[in-house]
Write a structure and sequence with these properties.
Layout lengths: L15 H15 L11 E5 L4 E5 L13 H20 L3 E6 L8 E8 L5 H4 L22 H13 L3 E4 L3 H19 L2 H9 L51 E7 L4 H20 L3 E5 L1 H4 L1 H11 L4 E9 L12 H4 E2 L31 E3 L5 E3 L1
Parallel strand pairs: 1-9
Antiparallel strand pairs: 1-2, 2-4, 3-4, 5-6, 6-8, 7-8, 10-11
């Protein structure tokens, strides 16, 4: 880990222009946060001395996330990135969470202030742009105990708990409940329709889950811990074999309560854990079906976290990198900014505009809808 002293920028006067630059950098970092279905459900408003993070309810997944828990968690992840950017700029930061009952969509206010930066956050700065949700098959390499301990400390720093799921009976339960949740969600036509709306998107949309980020589905997957089937058009570009099972390293992230403040803090905790893993060259992907279905979430809590509330299950491992998911135009998200939109990164693409998988599957088979929002092969 770098010394905190190496993270300090060169001495410079703390002029209003410098503060503006810090806030612009914080907004840029927030835009790179993970979000449910890559909906990017936030607005960022810049002021001379602060940054406001607001929920964009127009981007809420009303079927998957009717209470807005995952929307608030997504904004929490953006908040953590903003805090990291301010710390990396050599500033302390003051955060007001849910500051006004009269403004329920104002989820956080971030103010750079005089004082020493949080060195533990500052050292995560380079990881913000490198972090990816990785849905590939993970190598059979266990995560060392010292890494898991570091992740637990990061989660605790954000008011959350993180524990490995390692016992055979706990893993068996986790697999059974994940399969149950996956079946229940996919039996819901409204869920499948919502999933289709946020996958295989046009390049101009600059959001949602692109083909380049999802495994190809050929109808033969039988993972013990099924990943969500985002391959709604049969053009997933990642290998079909994800081998997602109970032999991989799995952790459970929890909070004491289950109110909007807890949701916001759990999003911050998750992103801090993901950035730490990125800095240590591990990859991860959340498994959230199990906590999205009320019955399976309640059973998971009863068995593994009776005194807390499960917020995320995360699988961790080693895998080849994946492409960054698209980001909305900065000008559409950030208000009062003087920075232009960055140029889009060219992508190798097929007709959809995103990298695509094979049009013809094994033995010449072709993709057709499977009736539940995904695909099968004939």
């Amino acid at each position: 880990m770098p010394s905190p002293h190496t993270l300090q920028p060169p001495a410079r006067s703390r002029t209003p222009e410098r503060l503006t630059e810090v806030l612009e950098d914080a907004a840029d970092a927030a835009l790179l946060a993970p979000s449910v279905h890559n909906t990017q459900p936030w607005r960022i408003v810049l002021h001379p001395d602060r940054l406001d993070l607001e929920a964009d309810r127009s981007r809420q997944l009303t079927v998957l996330d009717p209470a807005g828990r995952e929307l608030v968690q997504s904004v929490g992840a953006a908040l953590l990135n903003a805090r990291v950017a301010v710390a990396a700029a050599g500033r302390a930061v003051a955060v007001e969470r849910l500051p006004s009952p009269d403004e329920p969509d104002l989820l956080a206010v971030v103010r750079p202030v005089d004082g020493d930066p949080d060195a533990a956050l500052a050292e995560l700065g380079p990881a913000v742009a490198k972090r990816r949700t990785n849905r590939r098959r993970f190598a059979d390499a266990p995560v060392p105990d010292d890494v898991l301990s570091a992740l637990a400390r990061d989660a605790a720093a954000e008011g959350a708990g993180l524990v490995p799921v390692a016992r055979a009976d706990s893993l068996e339960l986790l697999a059974r409940l994940t399969q149950q949740a996956d079946r229940e969600q996919n039996a819901d036509a409204a869920y499948r329709a919502e999933l289709r709306r946020w996958t295989h998107r046009r390049p101009a949309d600059r959001d949602g889950i692109p083909d380049s980020a999802v495994p190809h589905v050929d109808g033969r997957q039988s993972d013990a811990l099924p990943l969500r089937d985002f391959d709604t058009a049969g053009s997933g570009a990642l290998p079909a074999d994800t081998h997602s099972g109970t032999e991989q390293t799995l952790v459970l992230l929890t909070t004491r309560g289950d109110e909007p403040m807890d949701w916001l803090r759990s999003g911050e905790a998750l992103e801090r854990v993901l950035l730490r893993l990125t800095a240590l060259r591990w990859v991860a992907s959340p498994l959230t079906q199990i906590v999205e279905v009320p019955q399976t979430r309640a059973q998971l809590r009863s068995a593994l976290a009776p005194h807390a509330h499960p917020q995320f299950v995360v699988r961790i491992g080693r895998a080849a990198s994946t492409e960054r998911t698209p980001r909305r135009a900065r000008s559409a998200v950030v208000e009062n900014s003087s920075r232009p939109d960055p140029p889009e990164t060219p992508r190798r693409s097929g007709a959809s505009g995103w990298p695509v998988g094979p049009a013809v599957g094994p033995s010449g088979r072709r993709p057709v809808p499977d009736g539940r929002g995904g695909t099968t092969w004939i």
